[in-house]
């Protein structure tokens, strides 16, 4: 009886210890300065991605919104939203708005938004998931974009999987 109780206690302890390790070892994720509601802007108001991410059609990077982009619509509050109020105050203070990148590719990986979106006509959802439906900024990418993800997409689209295409 005591031996089975000791084994049971050991198993439960290992489960608790393992779960605690997994929870504590995860990165906290990214906290954006404004809880931006993509659904409100994209689905409800019909704003296109290019309005806030202006570079993806012509450059390798998409660009993150800055104060000029936000001030185009939000110099004054249009709603009672606490986040919009915070945005208007940040704009009035002139300190800038610094959104943080969610995706961080290794230095040896070359990725071009222009090549994938403007030329190949891939929808943003392929890499960004259902970001257009999000009510607040995700703390980490909605889609795990890694080499397997890219290789699978390249294979599905019938484009090269030659190393030099992406690794430089």
UniProtKB/TrEMBL annotation:
<dbReference type="InterPro" id="IPR029467">
    <property type="entry name" value="Cyt_c7-like"/>
</dbReference>
<feature type="domain" description="Cytochrome c7-like">
    <location>
        <begin position="110"/>
        <end position="168"/>
    </location>
</feature>
<protein>
    <recommendedName>
        <fullName>Cytochrome c7-like domain-containing protein</fullName>
    </recommendedName>
</protein>
<dbReference type="Pfam" id="PF14522">
    <property type="entry name" value="Cytochrome_C7"/>
</dbReference>
<dbReference type="InterPro" id="IPR036280">
    <property type="entry name" value="Multihaem_cyt_sf"/>
</dbReference>
């Amino acid at each position: 009886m005591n031996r089975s109780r000791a084994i049971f206690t050991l198993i439960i302890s290992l489960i608790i210890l393992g779960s605690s390790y997994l929870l504590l070892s995860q990165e906290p994720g990214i906290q954006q300065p404004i809880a931006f509601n993509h659904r409100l802007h994209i689905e409800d108001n019909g704003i296109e991605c290019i309005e806030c991410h202006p570079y993806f059609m012509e450059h390798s990077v998409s660009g993150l919104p800055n104060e000029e982009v936000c001030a185009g619509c939000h110099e004054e509050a249009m709603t009672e939203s606490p986040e919009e109020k915070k945005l208007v105050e940040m704009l009035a203070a002139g300190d800038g708005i610094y959104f943080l990148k969610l995706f961080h590719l290794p230095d040896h990986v070359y990725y071009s938004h222009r090549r994938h979106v403007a030329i190949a006509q891939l929808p943003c959802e392929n890499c960004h998931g259902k970001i257009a439906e999000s009510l607040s900024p995700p703390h980490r990418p909605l889609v795990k974009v890694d080499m397997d993800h890219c290789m699978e997409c390249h294979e599905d689209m019938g484009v090269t999987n030659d190393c030099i295409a992406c690794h430089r």
